[in-house]
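Support request from a user on the community tier.

User writes: "When I paste my structure tokens into the form, the page sometimes reloads and wipes my input. The last time it worked, I copied everything first. Here is what I submitted, just in case something in the input itself triggers the reload:"
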């Protein structure tokens, strides 16, 4: 049952693996999107955002590279 979970990927008809290399390069994005903009420098910023149940304000925790 576990082997079915991550194997389904959609490959567009004009996708050429020799030309594009990967689906992320084809779409021009990284799976982590904005969080990975400095990934080439070895910096990954992780943010965790939640609402306070008492005052309904947002609390954000962020890693410091």
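"...and here is what came back when it finally went through:"
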């Amino acid at each position: 049952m576990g082997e079915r979970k991550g194997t389904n990927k959609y490959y567009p008809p004009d996708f050429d693996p020799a030309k594009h290399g990967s689906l992320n390069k084809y779409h021009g994005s990284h799976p982590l999107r904005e969080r990975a903009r400095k990934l080439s420098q070895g910096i990954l910023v992780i943010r965790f955002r939640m609402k306070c149940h008492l005052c309904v304000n947002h609390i954000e925790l962020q890693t410091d590279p």
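Agent notes: The reload is a front-end session timeout and is unrelated to the input. The CA atoms of residues 42 and 65 lie 9 Å apart. The chain has a mean pLDDT of 76. Escalated to web team.
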